[in-house]
Write a structure and sequence with these properties.
Helices cover 21% and strands 45% of the residues. The protein is built from one helix and five strands; from the N terminus they run E-E-E-E-H-E. Strand 3 and strand 4 form a beta hairpin. It is elongated, with a radius of gyration of 14 Å.
Length: 91
């Protein structure tokens, strides 16, 4: 059975500019038996200056969690850019 993980990435706006940075992240293994909505990208908590994007994934047994996290960050960045077409990500 694959492992289920939820990676969350925080994007923070610099002042009143269009410049944002991805400056925080968490990862948590999903507990077996807990409700699971399936893999995908979801909006987390957000305000005018901060936004969390969550990426739920399934990792095959023996699969690399670190690699899955890197892929999840790419998906979160793409979702952020889709939602904020005028924004620029720092770094």
């Amino acid at each position: 059975m694959p492992q289920r993980w939820v990676f969350a990435f925080c994007y923070t706006r610099r002042g009143q500019t269009n410049l944002w940075e991805q400056d925080g992240e968490t990862r948590a293994e999903h507990a077996p038996g807990a409700p699971w909505a399936g893999p995908g990208v979801r909006m987390g908590k957000h305000t005018e200056r901060q936004e969390w994007i969550e990426v739920a994934v399934e990792v095959a047994e023996g699969g690399g969690v670190n690699e899955a996290e890197e892929d999840a960050l790419d998906r979160a960045d793409a979702e952020f850019k889709r939602r904020h077409q005028e924004a620029e990500l720092a770094g």
